[in-house]
C-alpha cells in the first residue's frame, strides 16, 4: 500500500494525518537506541467500540484503529491481554465502518491459532495479542479481536514498535471481570445505497431562459432577438438591433427597474443606442456611445458573468458559468442525439425539391437524418405530427447548409419542434427559417436572411446579417432522457438480538431520520430477528453534495418486570457519485484567502466508483477571474503559469489510474499565487495530456478563493 501523496505523485499533496493521537502515549528507545519524543504526529491507537454477544452469544469483539506516522513506520502492535480466564478466539482486520466485515487472520496476529491465551512479545516485553504485519508510512489500519466472554470495559496497555522505538500507552479494552448478566438487547443496522438515474424531461434546462444563447462571439448586422440574448464571448452589433422587443413571436412584458437582465455578454460589448427591454450586463469592456436606458433599466459590468436559476447575473459570480452551461448543453445534445427513431411513418427525400418527415406518435416523434453533403437548396421540408406532440429532428453531419429553402409544419406547432445538430461544427443558413428551436452545442453559424422561430443554442461563434432574427417562441416540448444525475436512496435492514437471559416483548425500532416499518416483536433469550424491521431514506441534493450520510437507530423492548431495555446502532454511508471534489474552508469576513497560514484550507477528494483503475490525467488548475495567465500545478507540486485560454500549454499534475481518495488531502503549497480572485479546478479526463475542457469527457469540481492580502 502506498501513501496518498505517493499515489498522486504530487509533492504538495503530502502529510495528511486525520484522527487524534492518544495524549498519554510514551516513547522509549530499545537498548542502545535513542528516544523518539511524542508529538501530534506520533502513532496512535484509538478504541472504536465493542460488540457483546458477537459473533456468538457469550463472546465479545473489540475494535480499534491504529495509525502510523513515519518514517519510521510501525512494525508491529501489541495489546496487553493478561486476565486469568481470558482466551482469544479470533483476531484480524476490519474495514473501519462495518463491524461485520471481519477479515480473520489479517494483520498477522500472534498467537495465530485460536483459542489461545496471550503470548509474550520479547521486543516490547508485553504479554497479549500481537499484530506482526508492518505498516507503510502514514497508513491507517483497523484491528479487532474476539474474546471468550462479555468482558466489561476497562483499560489495557498497548505497545507500538517503530524501528528502534517502542511507544506505549493505554486505551479502553476488556477488564478482567465480565459484565454481569442482565436483560440486554443488541441492534445491528445495515444500509445499502441504491442509485436510480433521474429521468429528466427539462430539455434545455437553464438555457430555456434565453431566446438565443451563443457560447462564442456574436456579430450581428441588423436584426433582433425578441427575448433574452446571452453571449459568452465578444458581442458586436451594427446596423441597428433590438433585444427583448417581440414583433413576430410571443409578447413579453415591458420590464421596469433592474430586475431582469436582457442582454448578457461575457466578454467585450460593442454597443450602440438601440432598444433593449431590460438590463445590459457585460464582463469585459463596453465600447460605444453613452446609453440612456428606459424604464429604470441599467447597464452594469460584472466579473465573472454567471447565471442564477432565473437566467439573471448575480453580482458575486456565484452562479453557473458559461463554461458549465455549455458543458450541460453538450451533454444534453448527446443524450438527445442517441435517441432512436420513434413514431416514424414516413422519412423520405423526394428529389429534387421535397423532404417528408411524418410521425404518428401523440407524445414524441424522433427523426434521425444525415445532412446532405451539398446542403439543402431550393427545397421544401415537410414535417407532420399530431397536434401537441413533440418532434425531435436529430441532424447528423459536420457542416450543414440551407439556402433558399422553406419548412412547413402540419399538425404540430413550432413550440414543440426541436432541431438537434448532433455533431455539426458549422451551420450555414441563407434565406431559411427554422420552424422550431435549435440546439447546436458544437457549431458555429453564419445566418443570413431568415429566422429561428424558437430558441437557439450555438456552441461556437455566430455571425448574422441581412436582418436575421430570433423569434420568441419558447420550446415547450417534452423529451425525457436518463440524465447523468442520480436519485439516490438508502435501504436499511435491522437485526435485533436478545442478548440477555430474559425474554423481551413489544420490541420496536425507531430512527429519527426515517420511518421504520415493522414490529413490535418479541424475542426469547438468544433469539434474533433479521426481517421484521426495514426503512428507506431518500437523500437530498445537499446530502449527496456532502458525500456521506449517517444516522442512529434505537431498538427498545420490555422485560417481564416492565423495565425498558434499549440498544442503538449507527450507520454511515459514503455515497458520492463518481467524481472529484474540491473544498475550501476558513477565511475572514471578506472571503477565503489562499496562501495565508491558519485562514484557509483547500482540500481534494476523489470517489472513483466504476471508473477505478481507468488511466487518466489529473488536473489542478487556478484560473484567475482577471488577467492574461492561468496556473496549473505540475507533477512537482509547483504552480506554473501559462497564457490564459491556451489549453495545450497546461500540464497535468499526475497521469495514472483513478483511485479512491476518501480522506481530504491538502493541495495548497506554500507558494502564494498572485493576488486576485481564482476559481480552483480539480479535474480528471482520459489519459492524453490534453485538458478536455469544456467539451469533455471530463469530471471536475471547482471552488472560488481569493489569494493575496
Written description of the protein model:
With 709 residues, the protein is mainly beta. It has 4 domains: 4-180, Immunoglobulin-like; 188-198 and 488-574, Immunoglobulin-like (Sandwich); 205-479, no CATH class; 579-707, Immunoglobulin-like (Sandwich), CATH 2.60.40. Helix content is 4%, strand content 48%. It has 3 helices and 62 strands. The strands form 12 sheets. A 10-stranded parallel sheet has the order 25-23-20-17-14-42-39-36-33-30, with helices on one face. The chain has a 9-stranded parallel sheet with strand order 24-21-18-15-43-40-37-34-31, with no helix packed on it. Strands 1, 4, 7, 8, 9, 11 and 12 form a 7-stranded antiparallel sheet that branches. A hairpin with a 7-residue loop joins strand 2 (44-52) and strand 3.
Amino acid at each position: 500500500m502506498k501513501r496518498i501523496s505517493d499515489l498522486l505523485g504530487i509533492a504538495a499533496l503530502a502529510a495528511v494525518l486525520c484522527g487524534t493521537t492518544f495524549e498519554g502515549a510514551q516513547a522509549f528507545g530499545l537498548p542502545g537506541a535513542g528516544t523518539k519524543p511524542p508529538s501530534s504526529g506520533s502513532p496512535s491507537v484509538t478504541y472504536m467500540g465493542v460488540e457483546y454477544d458477537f459473533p456468538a452469544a457469550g463472546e465479545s469483539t473489540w475494535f480499534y484503529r491504529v495509525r502510523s506516522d513515519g518514517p519510521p513506520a510501525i512494525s508491529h502492535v501489541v495489546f496487553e491481554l493478561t486476565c486469568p480466564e481470558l482466551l482469544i478466539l479470533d483476531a484480524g482486520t476490519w474495514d473501519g465502518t462495518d463491524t461485520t466485515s471481519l477479515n480473520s487472520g489479517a494483520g498477522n496476529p500472534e498467537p495465530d491459532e485460536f483459542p489461545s491465551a496471550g503470548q509474550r512479545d520479547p521486543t516490547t516485553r508485553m504479554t497479549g495479542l500481537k499484530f506482526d504485519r508492518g505498516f507503510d508510512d502514514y497508513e491507517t489500519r483497523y484491528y479487532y479481536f474476539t474474546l471468550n466472554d462479555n468482558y466489561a470495559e476497562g483499560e489495557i496497555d498497548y505497545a507500538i514498535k517503530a524501528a528502534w522505538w517502542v511507544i506505549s500507552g493505554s486505551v479502553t479494552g476488556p477488564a478482567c471481570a465480565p459484565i454481569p448478566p442482565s436483560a440486554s438487547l443488541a441492534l445491528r443496522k445495515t444500509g445499502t445505497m441504491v442509485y436510480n438515474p433521474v429521468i429528466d424531461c427539462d430539455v434545455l434546462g437553464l438555457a430555456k431562459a434565453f431566446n438565443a444563447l451563443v457560447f462564442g462571439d456574436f456579430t450581428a448586422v441588423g436584426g433582433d432577438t425578441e427575448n433574452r440574448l446571452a453571449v459568452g464571448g465578444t458581442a458586436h452589433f451594427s446596423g441597428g438591433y433590438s433585444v427583448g422587443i417581440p414583433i413576430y413571436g410571443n409578447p413579453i412584458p415591458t420590464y421596469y427597474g433592474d430586475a431582469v437582465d436582457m442582454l448578457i455578454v461575457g466578454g467585450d460589448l460593442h454597443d450602440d443606442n438601440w432598444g433593449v427591454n431590460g438590463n445590459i450586463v457585460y464582463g469585459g469592456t463596453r465600447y460605444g456611445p453613452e446609453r440612456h436606458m428606459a424604464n429604470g433599466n441599467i447597464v452594469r459590468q460584472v466579473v465573472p458573468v454567471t447565471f442564477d436559476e432565473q437566467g439573471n447575473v448575480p453580482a458575486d459570480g456565484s452562479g453557473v458559468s458559461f463554461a458549465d452551461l455549455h458543458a450541460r448543453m453538450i451533454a444534453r445534445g448527446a443524450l438527445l442525439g442517441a435517441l432512436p427513431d420513434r413514431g416514424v411513418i414516413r422519412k423520405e427525400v423526394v428529389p429534387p425539391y421535397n423532404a417528408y418527415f411524418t410521425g404518428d406518435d401523440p407524445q414524441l416523434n424522433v427523426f434521425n437524418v444525415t445532412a446532405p453533403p451539398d446542403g439543402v437548396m431550393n427545397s421544401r421540408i415537410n414535417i407532420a405530427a399530431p397536434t401537441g406532440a413533440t418532434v425531435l429532428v436529430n441532424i447528423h453531419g459536420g457542416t450543414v447548409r440551407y439556402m433558399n429553402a422553406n419548412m412547413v409544419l402540419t399538425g404540430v406547432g413550432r413550440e414543440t419542434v426541436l432541431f438537434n445538430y448532433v455533431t455539426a461544427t458549422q451551420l450555414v443558413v441563407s434565406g431559411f427559417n427554422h420552424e422550431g428551436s435549435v440546439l447546436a452545442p458544437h457549431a458555429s453559424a453564419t445566418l443570413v436572411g431568415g429566422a429561428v422561430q424558437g430558441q437557439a443554442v450555438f456552441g461556437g461563434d455566430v455571425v448574422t446579417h441581412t436582418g436575421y432574427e430570433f423569434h420568441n417562441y419558447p420550446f415547450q416540448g417534452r423529451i425525457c432522457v436518463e440524465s447523468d444525475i442520480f436519485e439516490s436512496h438508502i435501504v436499511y435492514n435491522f437485526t435485533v438480538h436478545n442478548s440477555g437471559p430474559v425474554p423481551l416483548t413489544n420490541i420496536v425500532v425507531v430512527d429519527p431520520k426515517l420511518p421504520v416499518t415493522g414490529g413490535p416483536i418479541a424475542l426469547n433469550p438468544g433469539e434474533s430477528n433479521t426481517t421484521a424491521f426495514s426503512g428507506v431514506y431518500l437523500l437530498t441534493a445537499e446530502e449527496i453534495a456532502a458525500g456521506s450520510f449517517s444516522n442512529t437507530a434505537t431498538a427498545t423492548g420490555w422485560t417481564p418486570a416492565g423495565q425498558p431495555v434499549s440498544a442503538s446502532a449507527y450507520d454511515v454511508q459514503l455515497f458520492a457519485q463518481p467524481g472529484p471534489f474540491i473544498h475550501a474552508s476558513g477565511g475572514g469576513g471578506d472571503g477565503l484567502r489562499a496562501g495565508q497560514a491558519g485562514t484557509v484550507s483547500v482540500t481534494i477528494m476523489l470517489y472513483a466508483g466504476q471508473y477505478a483503475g481507468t488511466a487518466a490525467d489529473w488536473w489542478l488548475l487556478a484560473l484567475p477571474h482577471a488577467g492574461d495567465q492561468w496556473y496549473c500545478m505540475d507533477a512537482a507540486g509547483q504552480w506554473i503559469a501559462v497564457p490564459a485560454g491556451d489549453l495545450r500549454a497546461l500540464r497535468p499534475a499526475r497521469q495514472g489510474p483513478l483511485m479512491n481518495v476518501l480522506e481530504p488531502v491538502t493541495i495548497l503549497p506554500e507558494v502564494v499565487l498572485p493576488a486576485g480572485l481564482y476559481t480552483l479546478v480539480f479535474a480528471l479526463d482520459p489519459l492524453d495530456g490534453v485538458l478536455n475542457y469544456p467539451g469533455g469527457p471530463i469530471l471536475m469540481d471547482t471552488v472560488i478563493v481569493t489569494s493575496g492580502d
